[in-house]
Write a structure and sequence with these properties.
This protein has about 525 residues and is an alpha+beta fold. Helices cover about 35% and strands about 20% of the residues. A seven-stranded antiparallel β-sheet has the order 1-18-17-13-12-9-8. A seven-stranded antiparallel β-sheet has the order 7-4-3-11-10-2-19, with helices on one face. It starts with 11 loop residues before the first strand and ends with a strand.
Length: about 525
C-alpha cells in the first residue's frame, strides 16, 4: 500500500495513450500527437526532437539513438541500434602515436559519427504514420521561437560551462557572455532550427550528405579530428531484434551489444537465485545483493562487450544459467566482494528517455544521448549541431575486443527496456544515468515484481550504485542501513545528484489500462488520457 505521506507523485493512468519522458515540453508534444491521430513512434520521435532542443546538454541530433518497439502490443519485439561508428581513419595505432593511452572525452577523436537522425528516419519509415516534417515541427518551433529554461535544466547547463568555453562555436551557441542561462530565461537556437528545417524538408540524406555534412566534417577536422564526408554518408542504423532473459515468468528484452543491455539481463539472472521479496526493499541485504550482482556483471561487461560485427561477443555464454551460477559462486552473502576491475564507467551522463504507448497498443521504448553533458563540447558553427563523445566508450588496447577501430561502434551505455509476458508487451521502460543504467533496470523491475511497487514508486525508490569499489547511495537510504553496508566492507559515498531517473509505462493485459510513472528527481513528466 502506497504511503501518501511519503509519496512524491501519483501514478498517471490512461486507456487511450500514455507518454513518460524527462521533459514537460516533450511529454506535452507527444501527447498532443497521440490525440491528433499519430502513433507511438510518431510521438516518440517528436518528443526526442523537442528534447534535443530544450535539453541540449542531455541529448541532441549530434548523438545516438536506440529503440525497442512492440507493434500492436505483441511480444515480437523489434530493436534498433542507431549508434554511430568511429571514423574510417581512426585507429589505435594512430591514437597511441599521438600519445593517447585512453580515450579523451573532450577530444574530437571521441566523436563517433552521429547516428540519431538516421535512426529516427529508419524508425519512421518502418513504424511511423505521420509526415516526418510534421513530427519535427514542434522541435523547430522551440528552436526558432525560443523555449523557457527550466530550473533543473539551468543547473545542468551551468555544470557544462567550462566545457563549452573550450570551443568557440559551442560557447557562441550555448552561452551568453560566457554564462549559462538562468531558470526562466527564453533561449533560441536559430542555427539548429535551420538544420532541423532542412532535415524536415529533405530527409536524413540532407544531414549525412551535401552541405550540412560538409560543414560538420569541416568543424570536426578544424578541431583536430580525422572525420571525412564518407564517414557521414555511410551511416546506417541496424534492426537487431532483442536479447532476452526471464524473471518470474516475465521476459525482459534488451538491445544486443554493442550496448550494455546484456548486463541488466546478467544481473537479473543472478538476482533471481535469491528470494528478494522476503527482504526490505531499502535494506542492506537487498542493496548488498544488487551491488554484488552489479560488481560481477560489470566485470563481464568490460571483458566481453563490444561491437559484435568487429569482435567475438559470446552472447549465449553470457546469458546462460551456467554463467550466472559461476558469477553467483563469487558472492559471499553479507560481505563486500573484491572490487578489482569493477568499473561501470562514470554515472552522471546526460541522456533522455521516452516511453510511449498509444491506443492501439503500440509501445516504443526510445533513448537518445550525447553521452556526457554537452557531449564532446565541440559544436559546428554553421549547423548548430553539438557532437557526442561516444568514442569514450572505446579502449586503446589492440588486444581488447572493445579497442577503437575504423567503422566500429564503441561499448554503449544507453539501453531502452521492454518486458513481455505471454504474447503481450506489459512494461515499456528506461532508466538514465550512463553506466548506472543496467543497475537501474534491474532495480526498477525487481521493485515491481519482488516488492509490489507501482510504476511511480518503482522509479522513485532510493537507489545505490556499486562502481569502482565504492557504493554510492542516494538520500532515502536510512543511516542504519548505511552502517550495515559499511560493516559488510563497502566504502560508501553520498551522491551529489540522483543516480539515474527513469520513465515507465505498464500495460494491463486484461483491462488495457496504462499506468505511467516518471522521475521525480529531475523534470520527468508522465501524461495519459
Amino acid at each position: 500500500m502506497r504511503n501518501f505521506y511519503e509519496a512524491g507523485r501519483s501514478v498517471t493512468y490512461g486507456v487511450n495513450g500514455a507518454v513518460a519522458s524527462s521533459s514537460t515540453h516533450s511529454s506535452q508534444v507527444a501527447l498532443s500527437i497521440l490525440k491528433s491521430g499519430g502513433n507511438a513512434m510518431d510521438a516518440s520521435i517528436a518528443a526526442c526532437a523537442v528534447q534535443c532542443v530544450v535539453d541540449p546538454m542531455q541529448t541532441g541530433i549530434g548523438g545516438d539513438c536506440f529503440a525497442l518497439v512492440s507493434m500492436g502490443g505483441n511480444s515480437a519485439i523489434e530493436g534498433l541500434n542507431g549508434s554511430g561508428k568511429a571514423p574510417g581513419a581512426l585507429t589505435a595505432d594512430f591514437l597511441m602515436g599521438q600519445g593517447f593511452t585512453n580515450m579523451d572525452p573532450n577530444s574530437p577523436h571521441s566523436v563517433t559519427v552521429p547516428g540519431a537522425i538516421d535512426a529516427w528516419s529508419r524508425l519512421h519509415e518502418k513504424f511511423g504514420s505521420m509526415e516526418f516534417a510534421d513530427i519535427l515541427q514542434p522541435a523547430i518551433d522551440f528552436a526558432e521561437n525560443g523555449f523557457v529554461v527550466t530550473q533543473r535544466t539551468s543547473v545542468d547547463w551551468e555544470l557544462g560551462v567550462s566545457k563549452l568555453l573550450q570551443n568557440q562555436a559551442a560557447s557562441d551557441i550555448y552561452l551568453k557572455n560566457g554564462k549559462a542561462p538562468a531558470a526562466g530565461t527564453i533561449w533560441k537556437l536559430p542555427k539548429l532550427a535551420a538544420t532541423l528545417k532542412t532535415i524536415a524538408k529533405k530527409g536524413r540524406a540532407a544531414f549525412y550528405e551535401g552541405e550540412l555534412a560538409e560543414q560538420m566534417v569541416a568543424s570536426l577536422r578544424a578541431a583536430g579530428g580525422v572525420h571525412q564526408e564518407e564517414d557521414f554518408s555511410s551511416v546506417s542504423a541496424d534492426f537487431v531484434g532483442s536479447i532476452t532473459s526471464e524473471y518470474q515468468g516475465n521476459k525482459i528484452h534488451q538491445i544486443p551489444p554493442s550496448g550494455q543491455g546484456i548486463i541488466a539481463l546478467i544481473m537479473l539472472n543472478i538476482l533471481k537465485k535469491y528470494d528478494l521479496s522476503g527482504l526490505d526493499p531499502n535494506g542492506s541485504q537487498r542493496l548488498h545483493l544488487e551491488a554484488e550482482a552489479a560488481r560481477l556483471a560489470y566485470l563481464a561487461r568490460d571483458k566481453f562487450v563490444a561491437d559484435p560485427t568487429k569482435a567475438d561477443v559470446p552472447l549465449d555464454m553470457l546469458l546462460s544459467d551456467e554463467f550466472a551460477d559461476q558469477l553467483n559462486s563469487h558472492i559471499d552473502v553479507g560481505k563486500a566482494g573484491d572490487p578489482t576491475g569493477a568499473y561501470a564507467m562514470e554515472r552522471h551522463r546526460d541522456t533522455i528517455y521516452a516511453s510511449v504507448v498509444d491506443g492501439n497498443g503500440n509501445a516504443v521504448s526510445f533513448i537518445n544521448s550525447l553521452y556526457m553533458g554537452f557531449g564532446s563540447g565541440i559544436a559546428c558553427p554553421d549547423t548548430g549541431v553539438l557532437f557526442q563523445n561516444r568514442g569514450f566508450g572505446f579502449v586503446v588496447d589492440p588486444d581488447h575486443p572493445n579497442c577503437v577501430a575504423p567503422g566500429k561502434r564503441p561499448l554503449h551505455t544507453i539501453i531502452p527496456g521492454m518486458v513481455t509476458r505471454g504474447n503481450q508487451a506489459t512494461i515499456c521502460y528506461g532508466v538514465m544515468g550512463g553506466g548506472y543504467q543496467p543497475v537501474g533496470h534491474s532495480h526498477v523491475l525487481t521493485n515491481i515484481w519482488d516488492f509490489g511497487m507501482d510504476p511511480q514508486e518503482a522509479i522513485d525508490s532510493p537507489r545505490a550504485f556499486y562502481n569502482a569499489g565504492v557504493l554510492e547511495v542516494e538520500e532515502g537510504i536510512p543511516a542504519s542501513v548505511r552502517q550495515e553496508l559499511s560493516d559488510m566492507g563497502y566504502e560508501l559515498r553520498d551522491t551529489a545528484m540522483p543516480l539515474g531517473g527513469g520513465q515507465i509505462i505498464t500495460i494491463d493485459p486484461e483491462t488495457g489500462v496504462l499506468s505511467a510513472g516518471s522521475e521525480s528527481r529531475k523534470d520527468g513528466c508522465a501524461l495519459a488520457y
